Amino acid sequence: MVARRKVAVVGAALSDCGRVDDATPYALHAQAARRALADAGLDRTLVDGFASAGLGTLAPVEVAAHLGLRPTWVDSTSVGGSTWEVMAAHAADAIAAGHARAVLLVYGSTARADVRAGRRTGTLSFGTRGPLQFEVPYGHTLIAKYAMAARRHMIEYGTTIEQLAEVAVQARANAALNPEAMYRTPVTVDEVLAGPMIADPFTKLHCCVRSDGGAAVLLVAEEYVRDCRTSPVWVLGSGECVSHAAMSEWPDFTVSPAAVSGRLAFERAGVRPSEIDVAEIYDAFTYMTLVTLEDLGFCAKGEGGAFVEKGRLRVEGGELPVNTDGGGLSAQHPGMRGLFLLVEAVRQLRGECGQRQVRRGDGTLPRLAVASGTGGWFCSSGTVVLGAG
Fold it and tell me: Does the predicted TM-score (pTM) go above 0.85?
C-alpha cells in the first residue's frame, strides 16, 4: 500500500472585493489565482489539479482555460455555499492518494455589480423543477426558508431575536478591525432589530451583504512545502454531508448537516471542538452561525442563544472568535462564500491578520481552526479542520 501524503494549504488570497464595478467574474478568478500562487511562491506549471464551480457552462473547463491551466484532476462539485469545503476535502484526498500534486481552488463573482448594472435581479431562484415544484407555488423564497428554521429554533429552545441579533453585532465588531470589510461601522442590537423586515424574524442586518469578489486557495503535497515562501497550514480532517432537497424532507429544522460533517471532520483530525482556536462559519443569515456552532459541538443543542449573547464570537475578548474578517454579514458575500472561510482560516493560523489577528490566552498564534460551509437551505455542509505548520 502506498503511504498517504500529508496535504498543506500554501497559498491563500482574495481578489479585489466589495464594490468592483469594472471587472468580470473571469477577471476576479484570475486575480485571486495569481495572488494565491504568488502567496505560495510557486509557479502555475506545478498545478495539475483544478476545482471551480458557479461560472460558465463547464466551470472547471472554461475557467481553467482562462487561467492557462491544463489540469489532469478536476472537480466541479456544486453544493452551494459548502462547495469549497467539500472541494478542499476532495482535493486533499486526491493529493494524499497521489492523484495530484497541487490543486488550485478558485471562485469569483460580480453578484453586486450585476444587479447594479441590471444584468440580473436581486432575487435568487433555484428554478421550479424537481422537489422544488412543490414549494415554489407558495412563494417560499430562500430567505424565507432560513427564517422558518430560525423561528422553529426560537419556539423549541426559547432562542430570542436579541440573541440572533448579537451574531450580527459581533460580526460587525470583527469587521471593524478589517480594513477590507465592506461595512465597518459598529451596530447595536437595537439597530439590528429596528431595520426593515426582510423575512420574519430577519430584519436587514440579520442577512448577509451583497458584494463582488473572488478567492483562491492552493493545496499541495507535503514534498512541495519546502519550496514555498509561506508557512504550511495542514489539512487535518474533513467531512461532508447532504441533508434534504425540500423543507418538507428536513427531519428537524434545528439541526443542520454540520452535525454530521463536523463530527466526521473532528474525528478524522483527531481533535475536539474545545481545542479549536478560531472558527470560520458560513453566515448568510444570523441563524446559520448560531445553529452551526451547536452542531459543530461548541455548545449543546438549544444553547446557541446563550452562547452567542456573551460576546464569545469577538476577536477582541471572545472565547471562540468566529468569522474574524466580519463574515458574510459585514465583510463580503459574493455568492458562494465558502472559499473565503478557508482563506481567512489560513491567514489566521499564519498570523497575517493585523488588527483582527486572534491570539490564544498565552499570547501565541492560534494552532487549530475550523471552516464550515453550508449550502442551499441547510441542504449540505462541508467542514475542514486546519492546523498551523
Answer: yes
